[in-house]
Design a protein that fits this description.
The chain is α/β, with parallel strands linked by helices and 461 residues long. It has 16 helices and 14 strands. The strands form three sheets. It has an eight-stranded mixed β-sheet, with helices on both faces. A four-stranded antiparallel β-sheet has the order 11-12-14-13, covered by helices on one side. Strand 4, helix 9 and strand 5 form a beta-alpha-beta unit. The longest helix has 26 residues.
Length: 461
C-alpha cells in the first residue's frame, strides 16, 4: 500500500472522505492493494493521516457499498476479490483457490447480520439432527409435519385470531407453491375465474394464468380492492392482501372486510387472504384477519415465514376451508411435499420454545428504527425527483419517480451500491413510475450514509 496524501485546504471542493475514498480505490484498481489484503484499521488510518475516525469510516463505507472492500466481523476490512488486470498471476491463482470466500464473493446485496439470530436456529437444528435423526430417514407427511402444523395453529389463534385445525393446514415450499395447490383445488370446485388486485403481486398472476384461469383485474382504492367491481352471480375467487396491500401498502378497513365476506357468501365464492407481512406492521397492533371474521368458511388463509425469519427458509402454509381440505385429502397422492422435513421439524421446535415470538418482537423493534431512519434520511437529503408513497411496509418503501429518466436507471444505480430494489408496475396509472427500496436489508447505522450516496448518484442521472 502506497502512502496516501490528503489535501486539507479549506477551499478544496472535495470532502476529505472523498479524497481518501478516491485514493484507496485507485490503489485497489492499480494493484497497489491486492485482493485479500487487510486494510489499515479505521483508527490507525485516522492517526496516520491526522483526520477524524468518522472521515475514515465514511470512506470505508463508500468502498464497502461499491464492492471494493468487504468487512469481516471481528477482523476488519479486506480488499475484495475482484478481477483486476493489474493483479499479479500468483495472487490471482491463490485467490481462485481460496474457497472460504465463495459465498461472500457471490453476495449481491448489502445485508444486515442483526436481522436474524442464527444461533438459536442452529441450536434447534442441531437438536433435530442429534435427537430426532431417525425421523429424517422417512419422507414428510404430504400436508406437512404434524408438529409444525400444530405450532402454526397455536400461533394463528393467539396472534392472528384464526381458529384453525392442524388438519386444515397445509405446509408448502413458498407462497407460489401454495398458489399452485389452491389453483388445482379450485378447479375441482368448478371455479375458473380469479379476481386480482391491480397493481398486485405479479408472480401470483403468472401462476393463475399458467393454470388456465381467467383473470379479472380489479383496481385498488384507498381502502383496498374495489369490492363493487368483483364479479357477481358467478362462482369465483379473489386474491387479496388486506393488511398490507402489495405494493401500495393500503389497509382494508373492517367494514370492507365484512363486505368482501358478504360478497363471497352471496356468490358461492372464496377469498384468498395473503397475510404475508402483517406481523411487521409498525403502527399499532397487527390488524385482525378476514379469516378471523369468517363464519361461513369462505376464506383460504395464506402465511409465510420468509419475512419474519429469513428469505431462504421458504416455508409457507395455507389454512383451507373444510370443503377444500377434503378435496386436498381425496387427491393428496397427486401432490408432493416439497418442503424440507428437517427445516419443518427445526421450525416446529423453534416455535415450541418461544423463539419465534421473540424473533418477531426483535425484528419489529429493529425494522421500526430502520423505517424511521429511512424517512428521516429522505427528509434530510431532499431530492425533488422522488416522492415517498408507501411507508407502511415492514420490508420496503415505495417511491414515485417524478422525472423523465427511465426508472430502470434508478434501479441499476441502486444495485451498483448493492441496495436491493425492485420495479413496481403502475401504482395508479400507466404513466406513474415507481420502485421499491428494501431498507430491511440495510444495517441500521448505514442507512443515513447509503441514502445520501444513493441520492447523489441519482442526481447525476
Amino acid at each position: 500500500m502506497k502512502q496516501i496524501v490528503i489535501e486539507k485546504n479549506n477551499d478544496s471542493v472535495t470532502f476529505l472522505y472523498e479524497q481518501l475514498y478516491e485514493a484507496l480505490k485507485q490503489q485497489i484498481i492499480d494493484g497497489d492493494m491486492i485482493a485479500g489484503e487487510k486494510c489499515p484499521s479505521i483508527r490507525k488510518m485516522a492517526e496516520d493521516l491526522s483526520i477524524s475516525v468518522t472521515t475514515v469510516m465514511q470512506s470505508y463505507n463508500q468502498l464497502l457499498a461499491e464492492g471494493y472492500i468487504k468487512n469481516k466481523v471481528g477482523s476488519g476490512y479486506y480488499v475484495e476479490h475482484i478481477n483486476l488486470k493489474h493483479t499479479n498471476e500468483d495472487v490471482t491463482k491463490e485467490t481462485y483457490q481460496d474457497k472460504s470466500d465463495i459465498f461472500i464473493n457471490n453476495q449481491e446485496y448489502i445485508y444486515d447480520e442483526q436481522a436474524f439470530d442464527f444461533k438459536k436456529w442452529k441450536m434447534c437444528s442441531s437438536k433435530i439432527y442429534t435427537e430426532y435423526g431417525n425421523e429424517l430417514l422417512f419422507g414428510s407427511d404430504l400436508k406437512g409435519e404434524l408438529s409444525l402444523r400444530t405450532e402454526i395453529a397455536k400461533y394463528l389463534f393467539h396472534s392472528r385470531g384464526v381458529n384453525a385445525s392442524p388438519e386444515n393446514i397445509v405446509i408448502a415450499a413458498g407462497t407460489q407453491q401454495s398458489i399452485f395447490h389452491i389453483g388445482r383445488i379450485l378447479k375441482k370446485t368448478g371455479i375458473n375465474l380469479i379476481s386480482l388486485e391491480k397493481p398486485g403481486y405479479n408472480p401470483v398472476r403468472s401462476m393463475f394464468l399458467d393454470a388456465a384461469f381467467n383473470i379479472c383485474d380489479v383496481d385498488v382504492l384507498d381502502n383496498g380492492i374495489n369490492i363493487n367491481a368483483l364479479p357477481n352471480n358467478i362462482k369465483s375467487a379473489v386474491y387479496v392482501n388486506p393488511s398490507n396491500q402489495f405494493p401500495t401498502g393500503v389497509v382494508m378497513p373492517a367494514a370492507n372486510r365484512y363486505e368482501i365476506l358478504k360478497w363471497a357468501d352471496n356468490n358461492d365464492s372464496y377469498i384468498i387472504e395473503d397475510d404475508y407481512n402483517s406481523e411487521l406492521r409498525y403502527f399499532g397492533k397487527p390488524l385482525p384477519t378476514i379469516k378471523s371474521l369468517d363464519k361461513k368458511d369462505r376464506v383460504i388463509y395464506l402465511g409465510s415465514f420468509t419475512s419474519t425469519l429469513f428469505a431462504a427458509i421458504k416455508i409457507s402454509y395455507m389454512v383451507l376451508p373444510d370443503e377444500l381440505s377434503k378435496i386436498f385429502d381425496n387427491n393428496r397422492n397427486n401432490y408432493s411435499q416439497a418442503c424440507s422435513k428437517a427445516e419443518q421439524l427445526t421450525l416446529a421446535y423453534y416455535m415450541s420454545q418461544g423463539y419465534y415470538y421473540t424473533a418477531i418482537r426483535k425484528k419489529r423493534a429493529l425494522f421500526t428504527k430502520k423505517l424511521k431512519a429511512v424517512t428521516e434520511a429522505f427528509d434530510k437529503y431532499k431530492y425533488e425527483g422522488i416522492e415517498l408513497l408507501n411507508t407502511n411496509s415492514g420490508l420496503f418503501v415505495t417511491i414515485k419517480i417524478n422525472t423523465s429518466t427511465d426508472e430502470k436507471l434508478y434501479i441499476d444505480s441502486a444495485k451498483k451500491l448493492k441496495i436491493f430494489t425492485d420495479y413496481v408496475e403502475d401504482i395508479s396509472n400507466s404513466t406513474q413510475k415507481c420502485i421499491m427500496i428494501y431498507y430491511s436489508y440495510i444495517p441500521l447505522n448505514s442507512i443515513d450514509l447509503i441514502i445520501n450516496i444513493l441520492f447523489n448518484k441519482w442526481r447525476l442521472l
